[in-house]
Task: structure prediction
Amino acid sequence: MEEQATYVSVWDGGVEVRSKCTYNRETGIVSDIECVDVDVDSLEDEYIELSDGTEIHDFINEDD
Result:
């Protein structure tokens, strides 16, 4: 079952970038991550945020 979610990446000491994505709860696969143009260097964390506020830290990024 696929649903719209938010892909959150945290960069360079706390710069948070949020973009739309599709998340499949059954497979744990994230896809169609919306591209955002930002000037950052070092990825520190990433997670998926569901519409109910649940954060998913263990996922597979299909776009990689």
